[in-house]
């Protein structure tokens, strides 16, 4: 029996690997149909958007509630609220004792967590499928009457401060990336504020401030509920209406006015002295398009061509061949209104930051003039197709994709078709987008250098 099981497991793995690794030129439509994600979609009378995907492969369910609130919804002087609520909403509710959210999940064989970014806050669970009612009840409690009181606020205020010390204040390059660069790239938009918030804002915020934020944003008409896995859709709909249907709709219209930044006119140069840094680094940070813009898809390919793997341009030319940097790379942070594209490097001994900047700029200029090779383009298209299929192969991946495609595109079916945007990208698109965004007058050049007075260096 075990031999048969392992044979079938190996066979299914081989088939899956074969499907995601082949060129797809002759059978892309067939593979897409094979992996098409079917889902049920409805909106409750209170505005809660519901997406349900049934898959009986494993006796598990994945549940997420995605709130359309992040650090960009905060007002000056009250930064860090969305991230604060990521913590606070595990404190308990009217019917759940302090600290028991995790106990409920763990004691029923599940796992749960949450995250916050500039645009969203998400709470999610994975549980045995017969525990779906428990997960829905827990999330409805969080939405309807989370515990927002002075005691809970004081506890989480100290937790967040400690988290900030650990992840930002005491980590090399972290403050430069998460706080300084956004504050220089954005002058008007709330993206200039750090997600984790400023200590003085957390200290100044009152219980009334937090309650107002909670009542405003953690409401049905500002949320997407997704359930994926082994469950009956008809029964799930009844449970969702039972636990969420009576929760009052939020009082405000969530069509947020977009804050437009003025175009950058020249490069902004900044030197940041960091007590945690031992190796000087350069960070070239460009203002990029929003995540739904087609140019954002092109930049993702550029990002991978530059720094994904040992054969990427930056690693091959700057790190390995010319040995100008001990480590270098790039990353694209895509957000709802804008993005940030960063190319960075840490210098080798005997190399200056100006020299490293010059050699990085030469790579960018080459990209702008000649684009990339057809081989590089096809390689990245294949990578993103594999990634697309792989994400839709897991319950948690399907849950995340359904919620995000609805939240940002208002079209959950993009879970089946979004890959087409990558397939249509050409070498001319690469050159066009590189010339549009990767310019000195559209960037912050930050030198992150050691503190010479720090005796711990």
Tags for this entry?
457 residues, alpha+beta, Cytochrome Bc1 Complex, Chain A, domain 1, six-stranded mixed beta sheet, five-stranded mixed beta sheet, 18 helices, 11 strands, globular, disordered N terminus
Q: Going by CATH, what is the homologous superfamily of the largest domain?
A: Metalloenzyme, LuxS/M16 peptidase-like
Radius of gyration: 24 Å
Overall geometry comes to globular
N→C terminal distance: 60 Å
CATH architecture of the largest domain: 2-Layer Sandwich
Give the uncertain stretches in residue-range form. Answer: 1-28
**Major beta sheet, specifics?**
6 strands, mixed
CATH topology of the largest domain: Cytochrome Bc1 Complex, Chain A, domain 1
The strand order across the widest sheet is: 1-2-6-3-5-4
Share of helix, binned:
40-55%
Helical stretch tally: 18
CATH class of the largest domain: Alpha Beta
Topology as H/E string? HHEEEHHEEHHHHHEHEEHHEEHHHHHHE
Beta-strand share of residues:
15-25%
- Give the number of DSSP strands: 11
Overview of this protein structure:
The longest helix has 20 residues, at 2-21. Helix 11 (294-307) packs across helix 18 (427-437) and helix 13 packs across helix 18 (427-437). The strands form two sheets. The protein has a six-stranded mixed β-sheet with strand order 1-2-6-3-5-4, sandwiched between helices. A five-stranded mixed β-sheet has the order 7-11-8-10-9, with helices on both faces. It is globular and about 65 Å long. It has helices at 2-21, 28-34, 81-88, 100-107, 132-145, 150-169, 174-185, 199-204, 207-217, 233-244, 294-307, 313-321, 353-370, 374-391, 395-409, 414-417, 420-423, 427-437; strands spanning 40-43, 49-54, 60-67, 111-116, 121-128, 223-229, 268-274, 281-288, 325-334, 339-347, 443-450. 40% of the residues are buried. With 457 residues, it is α+β, with helices and mostly antiparallel strands. The protein folds into three domains: 2-34; 40-244, 2-Layer Sandwich (Cytochrome Bc1 Complex, Chain A, domain 1), CATH 3.30.830.10; 268-450, 2-Layer Sandwich (Cytochrome Bc1 Complex, Chain A, domain 1), CATH 3.30.830. Strand 1 (40-43) and strand 2 (49-54) form a beta hairpin. It has 18 helices and eleven strands. Mean pLDDT is 91; it is low at 1-28. The chain is 46% helix and 18% strand.
């Amino acid at each position: 029996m075990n031999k048969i099981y392992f044979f079938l497991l190996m066979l299914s793995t081989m088939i899956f690997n074969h499907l995601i690794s082949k060129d797809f030129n002759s059978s892309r439509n067939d593979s897409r149909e094979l992996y098409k994600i079917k889902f049920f979609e409805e909106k409750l009378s209170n505005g809660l958007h519901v997406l349900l995907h049934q898959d009986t492969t494993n006796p598990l369910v994945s549940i997420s509630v995605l709130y359309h609130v992040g650090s960009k919804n905060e007002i000056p002087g009250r930064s860090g609220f969305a991230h604060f609520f990521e913590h606070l909403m595990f404190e308990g509710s009217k019917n759940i004792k302090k600290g028991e959210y995790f106990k409920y999940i763990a004691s029923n064989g599940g796992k749960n967590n949450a995250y916050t970014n500039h645009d969203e806050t998400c709470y999610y669970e994975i549980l045995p499928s017969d525990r779906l009612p428990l997960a829905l009840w827990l999330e409805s409690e969080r939405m309807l009457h989370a515990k927002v009181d002075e005691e809970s606020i004081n506890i989480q205020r100290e937790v967040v401060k400690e988290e900030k010390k650990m992840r930002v204040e005491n980590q090399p390059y972290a403050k430069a990336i998460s706080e300084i660069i956004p504050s220089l790239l954005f002058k008007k938009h709330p993206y200039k504020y750090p997600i984790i918030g400023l200590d003085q804002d957390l200290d100044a915020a009152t219980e009334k401030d937090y309650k107002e934020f909670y009542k405003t944003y953690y409401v049905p008409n500002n949320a997407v509920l997704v359930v994926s896995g082994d469950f009956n859709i008809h029964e799930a709909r009844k449970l969702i209406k039972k636990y969420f249907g009576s929760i009052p709709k939020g009082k405000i219209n969530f069509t947020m006015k977009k804050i437009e930044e003025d175009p950058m006119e020249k490069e902004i140069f900044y030197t940041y002295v960091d007590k945690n840094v031992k190796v000087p680094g350069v960070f070239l940070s460009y203002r990029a398009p929003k995540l739904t813009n087609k140019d954002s898809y092109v930049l993702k390919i550029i990002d991978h061509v530059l720094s994904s793997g040992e054969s990427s341009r930056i690693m091959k030319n700057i790190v390995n061949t010319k040995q100008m940097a001990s480590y270098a790379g790039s990353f694209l942070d895509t957000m709802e209104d804008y993005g940030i594209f960063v190319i960075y490097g840490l210098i080798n001994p005997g190399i200056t930051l100006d020299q490293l900047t010059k050699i990085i700029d030469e790579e960018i200029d080459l990209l702008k003039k000649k684009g990339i090779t057809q081989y590089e383009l096809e390689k990245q298209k294949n990578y993103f197709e594999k990634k697309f299929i792989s994400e839709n192969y897991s319950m948690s991946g399907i849950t995340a994709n359904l919620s995000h495609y609805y939240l940002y595109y208002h079209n959950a079916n993009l879970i089946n078709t979004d890959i087409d945007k990558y397939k249509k990208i050409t070498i001319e698109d690469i050159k066009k987008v590189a010339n549009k965004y990767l310019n000195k007058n559209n960037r912050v050049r930050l030198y992150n250098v050691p503190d010479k007075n720090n005796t711990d260096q």
